[in-house]
From TrEMBL:
This is N5-carboxyaminoimidazole ribonucleotide synthase. ATP binds at residues 98, 138, 143-149, 171-174, 179, 202, 256-257. GO terms for biological process: 'de novo' IMP biosynthetic process. Belongs to the PurK/PurT family. Catalyzes the ATP-dependent conversion of 5-aminoimidazole ribonucleotide (AIR) and HCO(3)(-) to N5-carboxyaminoimidazole ribonucleotide (N5-CAIR). Pfam families: ATP-grasp, PurK_C, RS_preATP-grasp-like. It comes from Pontixanthobacter gangjinensis. The gene is purK. InterPro entries: ATP-grasp, ATP-grasp_carboxylate-amine, ATP_grasp_subdomain_1, PreATP-grasp_dom_sf, PurK, PurK_C, PurT/PurK_preATP-grasp, Rudment_hybrid_motif. PROSITE patterns: ATP_GRASP. Pathway: Purine metabolism; IMP biosynthesis via de novo pathway; 5-amino-1-(5-phospho-D-ribosyl)imidazole-4-carboxylate from 5-amino-1-(5-phospho-D-ribosyl)imidazole (N5-CAIR route): step 1/2. It comes from the Bacteria. One of its GO terms (cellular component) is cytosol. It catalyses: 5-amino-1-(5-phospho-beta-D-ribosyl)imidazole + hydrogencarbonate + ATP = 5-carboxyamino-1-(5-phospho-D-ribosyl)imidazole + ADP + phosphate + 2 H(+).
Amino acid sequence: GGTIGILGGGQLGRMMAMAAAQLGYHCKIFAPERESVAAQVSDDFFFNKWDDTAALNAFAQQCDVITWEFENVPVDPLSAIEDRLHPHPRALETAQDRLNEKRFVEGLGGKPAAYVTIDSHNDLIAAIDRIGAPGILKTRRDGYDGKGQWRIDSSRDAEGLRLPDTATIYEGFVEFFAEFSVILVRGHDGEIRFWDSAENVHIDGILASSTLPASDRVCAQVEEARKLAASIAQALDYVGVLTCEFFATHEGPIFNEMAPRVHNSGHWTIEGAVTSQFENHIRAICGLPLGDTATTAPRIQMQNLVGKQAKTALDLLSEPDTHLHLYGKKQARDGRKMGHITRIGRD
Ligand code: ATP
Ligand code: MG
Ligand code: MG
C-alpha cells in the first residue's frame, strides 16, 4: 500500500485511481476544477490552482508517489516535488509545446509532418507558399481533442483567418491511410513493454474509436514506430505509460504527437489486455514489476461516448461481451467525453 497523488481530476485519473485501489493504494487528487470525476473514486481532493505552490507542496507531503493524468500541468511548480514525481517533468516540458516536441523527435530520427512556426499573418502566407495547402494551424500549447486547430485549404482561407493571440505552428496536411498509436510502459529499471497498436479513427479532432487488430498495412509500420517511441522514452528516462500517435502513410509512419500519460486509445486494455495501461502505469511509478501487455481477444473495439451519445449507453449492457464505462460527468456538453464502451470479439 501507500498513497499516490494524481495531478489532474479527469477520467484518466479516475481509471488510474481505480487500478491503484485494486493494488491496495490510496489516491489523492490535485486539480483546479471543482467537479472532479477522479476525486469521486479517491480518498481526498485538493481543490487548488496549479500555481498554488504551498498547496502543491502540502499535497506532496501526504503522498509517497505522484503522477499526472493531465498533460498541461504547469511545469515550474513541479521542481519542488520532483523527488516523488514520475514520470520526470522533463517529459511534460517536451510534450507541452508542439515545436519542442517536433524538434526533439526529429533529433531522434522521427519524421513529423512538414511544419513552420507562425508569428504573423505574413508568416502564414509564406508557410503556405513553402509547404503548401491544405494544412492545419495549431496553437503550440494547450490544445486537446482538436481544440486550438484550424484547417486551411488555401492562402485565401489564411487571409480571412484571425490568428489567435498565442504562438502557433502550421503543419502540412498528411494524406494518411490510417492513424494508430504506440502505447508503452517503461519501468524504473528501463524495461519497456508495448501493447498492441490500435487503429484509431478521429471525428472532428476527437477520438471516436480504437480497433484491434489494426489492418495489415498499419501493422507493417508498427515496428518502426515502436523504435521511435522507445527512443523517446529512453531519452526522457521515462517511467510510466507513454503514448505516441502516428499517421500511417505510403512513406511510412509520420509522428503526430506524444502524450506523456495513459491515453484514450488504450482504454481497450482494461478488458482486452492481460494488464491494463492504468495498472501498468501504477506498477511502473511504484517500482513494482510490470505486467504482461498481451492482448487477450482476437478482436476488440473501443468506442467513445461523446456528448449525448452517453444517454442511451445503458441499453448497450444487454449486448454480449460489451463493457460500459461511464465517467460520472454531470453535464453532457457537445464534444465532451462522457464514457466509452469496449466490445470484445471472441472469434
Ligand atoms: P489529442 O486529444 O489527441 O491530444 P490534439 O488536439 O492534440 O488531440 P492532434 O492530435 O494534433 O490534436 O490532431 C487531432 C486529429 O486531427 C489527428 O488525430 C488527425 O486526425 C487530425 N490531424 C491533426 N494534424 C494533422 C495533419 N497534419 N494532417 C492530417 N490530419 C491531422
Ligand atoms: Mg494532443
Ligand atoms: Mg492527438
